[in-house]
Write a structure and sequence with these properties.
The chain is an alpha/beta fold. 42% of the residues lie in helices and 13% in strands. The longest helix has 20 residues, at 79-98.
């Protein structure tokens, strides 16, 4: 049976890699985003505003996907606004597609804030969950835009009779420009600045993160799970954590990242050293670096998301993610985490995003 995927957020870390995985497996792929992806010519692109129901319906009037992959969100100033806006974009999208009755499956990508709490109460006392994090853990007694997005999917699935899966990655490592949560590229830019200035490559986070066990999600792993779930009957109407399948300590990985860039590694020194403060005045320096090295992106803010990297690395607990729910159903993909970073750094250089 012909399968047509609509990848929402096709220019983002998750969406871009999902489109690539779908194309590799022979799917017809339509991408929805504000700007067309520059590196996916095989994808039919649709530009639309997810918060304008009338314009969205007009843009999708001739689009009848069998599968929908929602990999985008919009950051707002408060969690109440995050809920209003991000629930609306899911609702508007699924309402716009409802009349076609073509959708058989919807996959929604959220993340570990499902367990750790929203930005306003992120990993704070009173909300710290047991780890490893498991899909069976109940929702926190906190308002959370991930919950609101899930509820919109559940409501539309009940109305239109499609199946769904929810995918919860840890920190996603992969190539994207203009992404609000981009730890891998942020660390590459920070290391580049350290090399240019002679600063030490200072670990910005907490003792718990430096010494504790952790994991991350390669964007390619996320894409593989999304496509696997779309093709696996047993996965229907389930939530899945998705990480690389290994665990590490930042005290082990940090010197390896420093060595890649030829900079001095400085570990946890007793206090949190926020990256947002360390890079606060680096935008002019990055423009100069970009000009001298012929880089294609001179806007530091489109590459680095220091605020989110600080959230991830500043948590007061170690965070590991259990993947038993998808493992027991046959998802066996694995990715070495150090290779995730090195592959990303090599691609950033090849794309002339870092020197």
């Amino acid at each position: 049976m012909k399968r047509t995927a609509l990848v929402v957020g096709v220019t983002g870390i998750g969406g871009n890699h999902t489109a690539r995985e779908l194309l590799a497996q022979g799917w017809d792929v339509i991408g929805l985003s504000r700007r067309a992806p520059r590196d996916l010519p095989q994808v039919r692109h649709i530009a639309a505003d997810l918060l304008d129901p009338a314009a969205l319906s007009a843009a999708l009037k001739d689009v009848a996907p069998t599968h929908v992959f929602i990999t985008t969100w919009m950051r707002q100033d408060t969690e109440a606004e995050n809920i209003r806006v991000n629930a609306a974009l899911v609702r508007n999208l699924l309402d716009a597609l409802s009349s076609h009755k073509s959708v058989r499956h919807v996959a929604l990508v959220t993340g570990l804030k499902h367990y750790l709490g929203p930005f306003e109460a992120y990993a704070s006392s009173g909300t710290l969950p047991d780890t490893p994090l498991r899909e069976s853990q109940p929702r926190l007694a906190l308002e959370n835009f991930y919950y609101a997005q899930e509820d919109e999917v559940y409501a539309a699935a009940e109305r239109d009779r499609f199946t769904w899966t929810i995918h919860r990655p840890h920190t996603v490592i992969g190539l994207a420009v203009g992404n609000a949560m981009n730890l891998g590229t942020t660390l590459a830019v920070y290391a580049t600045i350290c090399k240019e200035t002679g600063r030490p490559f200072q670990f910005p986070g907490s003792a718990a993160q430096w010494n504790g066990m952790s994991d991350v999600t390669d964007a390619r792993m996320l894409a593989k799970q999304l496509v696997w779930a779309a093709d696996t009957d047993a996965s229907r109407n389930e939530a899945f954590n998705i990480v690389n399948g290994d665990v590490f300590r930042w005290s082990w990985l940090w010197p390896k990242l420093a060595a890649f860039f030829g900079v001095e590694a400085a570990g946890f020194n007793g206090t949190v050293q926020p990256l947002e403060a360390a890079m606060a005045n680096d935008a002019p320096l990055w423009r100069d670096i970009a000009a001298r090295h012929g880089l294609v992106e001179a806007d530091l803010d489109r590459l680095a998301s220091a605020w989110h990297t600080d959230l991830d690395l500043g948590r007061p607990l170690e965070v590991m993610t259990d993947m038993s729910n998808s493992r027991r159903l046959g998802f066996t993909a694995y990715q070495a985490t150090d290779a995730s970073f090195f592959d990303l750094f090599a691609r950033l250089r090849a794309e002339r995003l870092i020197p």
